[in-house]
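Is cholesterol placement plausible here? Inputs below.
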Amino acid sequence: MAVDLKTARRTLPAPMLDRSSYSIFSVIKQAIGKDLTRFSIPVVWNEPLSFIQRVAECLEYSSLLDSAASTETLIDRWHLLTAFVVSTLSTHLERMSKPFNPLLGETYELKMEGDTSFHYISEQVSHHPPVSAVYIRGQNWTLSANIEPKIKFHGTNVVALSEGRWILRIKKKQNRSRSGSQSSFQSCNDEETENNNSDHADDEMDEYTWKTPSVLVHNILFGRLWCEFQGQIDLIHKQSEQRSVLTIKSHSWFASQSTKTADMFKYSGFIYDDKTKISAYHGNYGHCYYAIDDLKDVQIKSSSPCSAAGHNCIQIGQNVSTAYPCDLVLTPSSRLIWYRSLSSMTDQELAVRSQYYYFTPFTYCLNEQVTTPVLPPTDSRYRQDMKYLEKGDIDGSSAEKHRLEEQQRADAKQREDEFQPLWFRKDENGEYVYTHEYEQRRFDHCPNLFTQSSRE
Ligand SMILES: CC(C)CCC[C@@H](C)[C@H]1CC[C@H]2[C@@H]3CC=C4C[C@@H](O)CC[C@]4(C)[C@H]3CC[C@]12C
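Reply from A.M.:
I modeled the complex. Tokens:
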């Protein structure tokens, strides 16, 4: 459970199956207009992760939230928060595989240690419609969401959207200084010392909310699959009139077929106080976030391109899968806040990324088996269908996935009352809220979700 990236695995037992002889279209054409989340696709299109593990990937750059919680400057906090939201998009661009649908009651826990520490707890709380409830505790902040993905097939492309919003709560500065020394700050590692493991009262927390924009997956009929996010993100501060409004440049899909266009993955936005613009920013959501310190510069292009290390991670075109440098043109006062870095990967690791689902070192650790402390039997890591896929055993994986789906159907038929999640409770607004009980680690009553014997 306690995972440190420095010691975690950096590869999978086997590379993925070459998909070039499989057509995704032939599989999903039966699903035109239907919701693909209810549709079981062949495992060659899966990646060895469950959806609630894939969502944990949004935390790869959680250190931005740590910085946002500790910064003294209001504008910088807004930039760090917006950069975090951008970072949650950046990890999905190359990953054109479908994560496994979690079983009802499946859980996933990730306690990350080292440079970026946080504690992620999630549960699949509804099956029809699929809803994943997540709760993350970091240093002086918590993040929670109910994610209800809807995936629709429209003939030439697939649109995935996620209902539900992210809620970020950051401990207010003045309360923290009132409480005295640094050592009384809440850390994600000392939940035991925290008052009853419960969240702080609302008035002690700054609350920010946003919704994930929809994802458009291109080239379902032919060509290389690729995706982009669309629309606008409103990051709203509950206790004031301030907000950050991010606009993703729209991009027509046929323009991208042969040429890489200048607007690809670009976004820009403003931070508002009521109706007044107080700051601006821009970037490429596959790669970087720049604050624009002088509002007058917004329309002015300097002669310098983005200089952040690393690469924008995607190139569309004739089967090219290498990364290319980010081509964002800076303004005179652009200031780098964040960029996506693959710099911890060796050249050898980078060279084989495409054969390993484009996983990063962070992704590799998500489904790694851990031995201490004990996890509930419902944890995604115990799913054998994903283990088979990791090892490249497609037949074994399909058979086990099928068995689990059948078992889940049989369970649903037998269930008389509505399913009750173990770690989240439905509140008066119909949202699933974390109960803080998971951390007491009493797992005796958890069902053996994935084993056969428990059903007999
Ligand atoms: C035809 C096949 C290969 C399509 C694959 C579609 C994949 C790439 C889509 C389907 C559902 C999508 C997810 C839906 C919801 C969220 C939550 C959000 O906060 C981050 C993005 C994330 C995690 C999306 C990532 C991309 C995703 C996993």
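Short version: The longest strand covers residues 141-153.
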